[in-house]
Protein: Kynurenine 3-monooxygenase
Organism: Pseudomicrostroma glucosiphilum
Amino acid sequence: MDTHSHAAVVGAGPVGCLTALSLAARGFTVSIYERRPDPRHHQIGSGSRDNASAPRSINLAISARGLKALSSVNVETDRNMADVVLSHAVPMRARMIHTKDEGQGVKQMSQAYGLNGECINSVSRTLLNDLLLDQASAHPAVSLHFNCKLRSVDLQAREKDPQAEGECHLNFESWEGSGPASRYSALVVGCDGINSIVRSTIARLTPVNFQQEYIDSSYLELRIPPKIEDGAATFALDPNHLHIWPRHSFMLIALANLDKSFTSTLFAPQAIIGRLTSRGAILEFFANEFPDALKLMGDEDVVATLLPRQGKGSPLSSVKCYPYHYKGRAVFLGDAAHAMLPFYGQGLNCGFEDVGFLTNLIDKHGVRGDPGQSVGSGKSVQGEKEENAWDRYSPLLAQAFTEYSKERHPDLIAISYLATQNYHEMSSRVVSPLYLIRKSLDGLLMKTLPKGWWISLYSMVTFSPEIGYAEAKKREARQSVIIERVLVASGLAAMTGLGLAGRWLLKNRRDLW
Ligand code: FAD
């Protein structure tokens, strides 16, 4: 069994699939191990290819960082993975804020995401995963093993036994006869999500700082079905907006699907979600807080979706850790390394960006799965035995992984912080007058100053992959100080103006009256 150029990717989620494709493009033989059955044969969601009802799936907003990473995978001569994903996505150019003002009913307010028509893209997570799985299974160097759960991994197999077939030894629990019981591999990449086994294994061998924080809010998914007009299905809301119903401590959002439905998510504290346990309570809550959305969803559908949940939402937590690797043998990416709150729409974008960040470092150190084809600084020796080449590559890979942990960490901490902050922005600040003034000033400065001098935080995070998350956060801090000074100065100027006007009025009051 060839283990010298073998990479084991744990988890066939979107990050695992992109990792496998990226490593295969660098000459590795890759196996993906996934504990679940093949989702392409099992589930049918609102955004899936089968397009029927049944289990609902979250929509994701994919933006520039995710698309940049996806574009590195070529599908055909003139198409890459980003093109494929975009052909299944609905562009969203703005937020649509649905306010509820006492006595004034429901109002809608559109807030553009960018000055030049930039958009984020709504795509079903299920469909996105299916598309990546299709590419992975079509690749000759990638094999997929479903129903194959990683139980444990020994990252010191060769240290313990020099005759071992590989550096790492993976043990699986597999069923339906689809996966191996164990496998040796040169390299393990953990893309196994928030409860990563690869991460916890590494943490037993080397100190890993780890923090998981839950917030009081959880989420519930709902659906806005297509509207039928003259016998044809149309969108019930403008599909090119991300719809938000901000209500301070909770909010509802909706993103369009290709089948003209919307996937809607309620984010709320347990104190609210916990009360949604009867038909009456559910309908009363929606009628009071989201009357326009309730009309579009339909009473029966809302009750049928929420009643079985009996006041239990899906929890939301973020994970921070450091480092993200063990020697040149194992590394973990995506939610395994940095699950974050979903409020900046960056969790997966960041996970895809991880893959690009890591493979750039692998290239920089000239490591390839096919040793004869070395790139970068790795000295290629034609005809060198793979086994010897891998001994030479292993320290180079360790260097690449060490740099990955060090250089990627500030970005991951920054985006996790920004994702948490954005919860407050989406649920309440979007309607505050100060936020709207700040946003207008941001727009004005972006428009009037020379290109690149002033970029709003949202644009840096969402549309500017060339600016790292940490750099974006730093630039925003500087910009905020300037904006605050401008606002204070304008306030002072306004107050001085009012004062002078007052004095003038007092002085001339006899003439006026
Ligand atoms: P996962 O998707 O969790 O995949 C991990 C895979 O590993 C799974 O298939 C799992 O079955 C498998 N696995 C786990 N353990 C094992 C094991 N022991 N053996 C074998 N296989 C295993 N991100 C965005 O970019 N934009 C958004 O708009 C956005 N919206 C979101 C909205 C919500 C409500 C939520 C909850 C998240 C959102 N995200 C968004 C975040 C995004 O969903 C995640 O960041 C992304 O799915 C992470 O991908 P992943 O491949 O790292 O992990």
In short: Residues 10-16, 33-36, 58, 60-61, 125, 149-150, 191-193, 197, 219, 265, 334-335, 342, 345-349, 351 surround flavin-adenine dinucleotide (CB under 6 Å).
